[in-house]
Design a protein that fits this description.
- By secondary structure, this protein is α/β, with parallel strands linked by helices.
- The chain has a single domain, classed as Rossmann fold (3-Layer(aba) Sandwich), CATH 3.40.50.300.
- It has seven helices and eleven strands.
- Strands 7-8-9-4-10-11 form a six-stranded mixed beta sheet, sandwiched between helices. Strands 1, 2, 3, 5 and 6 form a five-stranded antiparallel beta sheet that branches.
- Bound molecules: adenosine-5'-triphosphate.
- Adenosine-5'-triphosphate binds next to helix 1.
- It comes from Halococcus hamelinensis 100A6.
- GO terms for molecular function: ATP binding; ATP hydrolysis activity; ATPase-coupled transmembrane transporter activity.
- Its main location: membrane.
- Keywords: ATP-binding, Membrane, Nucleotide-binding, Transport.
Length: 244
């Protein structure tokens, strides 16, 4: 479980009182196996919030705990149980080739080679990049790079998987394949948080949608029960009757 209480983060010191917190008093909990879409307009604090989940950002006040352990007390545990992709995949790459990059996380967990190879193979197949281990990342298209980043997070086999705008640049087959894998992981108990502006792909999959506005939770509900409120909050929802 990921649990935040009265979480506040502001960039800069805000000493003159002018800096509005990017995350402003968020209390939410995400259960194991829960599939959450995190939506909201540009600048509403989505990326900042998920970066607090694994200690990439530090709260100014409030707390965040993963599996009952405060992130501040055990960053290593938080980083190994919460896997995250970045909005710009280039921010997360650590190796020159696809296979080396996807293997990096599991290697750091000290897993046996066969386990690592199996995870890499499975993760690459989930993003439709099977057999592309030796490709250089800098020669891939933006969409392919986004898929490598997702594969890297999948290969961690994390308790909690956070994907920040994962579908930008993905073609339809890749998007469908990733969505399938996410659904299977969620059914197996992995909690999944997908940051997005657009709920259309996730409407039938997400158990819950949390909408941020100005760093605060403006809505936390099951998607189907909140169609009209979502539309009023400028979150794109599928046309009724056209759900997957
Ligand atoms: N590194 C930073 N330094 C200063 N301010 C920042 C930084 N990152 C984000 N902010 C500010 O914090 C607020 C929340 O930004 P954040 O990126 O978390 O929102 P978001 O909902 O993820 O936006 P988007 O949908 O555009 O990615 C915004 O006002 C943004 O300008």
């Amino acid at each position: 479980m990921i649990e935040t209480r009265d979480l506040v983060h502001r960039y800069g010191d805000g000493e003159d009182g002018s800096a509005r917190p990017a995350v402003d008093g968020v209390s939410i909990s995400i259960d194991d196996g829960e599939f959450v879409a995190l939506a909201g307009p540009n600048g509403s604090g989505k990326t900042s919030l998920v970066r607090l989940f694994n200690g990439l950002l530090t709260p100014d006040s409030g707390s965040v705990a993963v599996n009952g352990v405060p992130v501040a007390d055990d960053l290593v545990a938080a980083r190994s149980t919460v896997a995250m992709t970045f909005q710009d995949p280039k921010d997360g790459f650590v190796a020159a080739t696809v296979g080396a990059d996807v293997a990096f996380g599991p290697e750091n967990l000290g897993l046996p080679r066969e386990t690592i190879d199996r995870r890499v193979e499975r993760a690459l197949s989930a993003v439709r990049l099977a057999g592309r281990e030796d490709d250089r990342i800098d020669r891939l298209s933006g969409g392919e790079q986004a898929r490598v980043a997702i594969a890297g997070a999948l290969a961690m086999d994390p308790d909690h998987l956070i994907l920040d705008e994962p579908f930008a640049g993905l073609d339809e087959p890749a998007r469908a394949s990733v969505l399938d894998r996410l659904a299977a992981l969620s059914a197996d108990g992995t909690s999944i948080v997908v940051v997005t502006h657009d709920l259309r792909d996730l409407f039938g999959l997400a158990d819950r949608v949390v909408v941020l506005r100005d760093g605060r939770v403006a809505l936390d509900a099951a998607p189907e029960s909140a169609r009209d409120r979502l539309a009023r909050l400028d979150v794109r929802v599928p046309v009724r009757g056209a759900d997957p």
